[in-house]
Amino acid sequence: MPLVSIPVLPIPNQPPLNFEVCAFGGESGFVCGEIVDFGVTITVNVPKTCGDKTTQLFNVTKVLMNKVYSEGDLGAPVYIPLSVPNSKQTIASPVGQVVGDRSGTGQKSRF
Amino acid sequence: MPPNNTDSGSVSVSDDLTKESNVSDINNLVRRQPPQPQAVDVHAGNRMWIFKSNHGVAPIDGNNAKKCTFGFAVRKVRGRNRFDHGFLTLSGCMHGTIMGFPYNGNPAYYTPNQNWVQQEAIQLGAIGSLVHEPANGISYTILRLLPNNEQYTL
Fold first, then answer.
1. How far apart, in whole angstroms, are the C-alpha atoms of residue B128 and residue B145?
2. Which domain holds residue A57?
3. Beta bridge partners of B7
4. How many domains does chain A contain in total?
5. Among A2-11, A83-92, B2-11, B31-40, which stretch is predicted with the lowest mean pLDDT?
6. How far off is chain B from A4, nearest CA to CA, in Å?
7. Contact present, B108 and B50 (Cβ < 8 Å)
8. 10-39 in B: which are within 8 Å (CB) of A?
9. What is residue B103's three-state secondary structure?
10. Which residues does chain B have within 8 Å of residue A98's beta carbon, measured at their own beta carbons?
């Protein structure tokens, strides 16, 4: 199932479709995948509630990851891995954070 | 807009693992020792437990917490309420009452082995500063790490 990423800051040059992004979740660990859709509308919990109220979040980017994601991964950083020239080091360019979609069954989807 | 800052935040906290130890001569001796500083290495991708409140001690049952992940490391260097070490996380990680009122606490805990063990839990700070802009697809909150002063695991 696709992982959903929302931006943590405006990105002047948004990565294109099929672009590779990675994430590191506290529960599922390191995953990578590609962007499959932009401008998606999802249903999320209203902040500062006990989880019984939902609201819609617009302009969300959907990512198809190579691994199942869990609820404990919410908030995990989503980034573009970049290689440092002439080095084995990589750096992470931040693009968003993991968010769950509660639409459909009323349960949080697993990503 | 949060700063584009991905360096790892780390904080040194004090630790008193012996406060609730079983009674024994050895433990009684240890109990009289002053809290020792403990280096805590936290970074984006770590798991955290967020509770409604903690009444000054780490809650026993980690299942009462919302389990979320540390997002990107951030700091606020200008304006009010500056902080040096913080992390973004999802706004849905915040607790609220049935009536929809926010809890003031929302203490966030971390454990070195990343599984909930009350005796090992370290309160790193609390989450707040909600930014919720549904039309822009932005919804996050900030975990501010407590400063390096007296902190205890129990």
1. 11
2. 3-99
3. none
4. 1
5. B2-11
6. 11
7. yes
8. none
9. coil
10. 69, 90
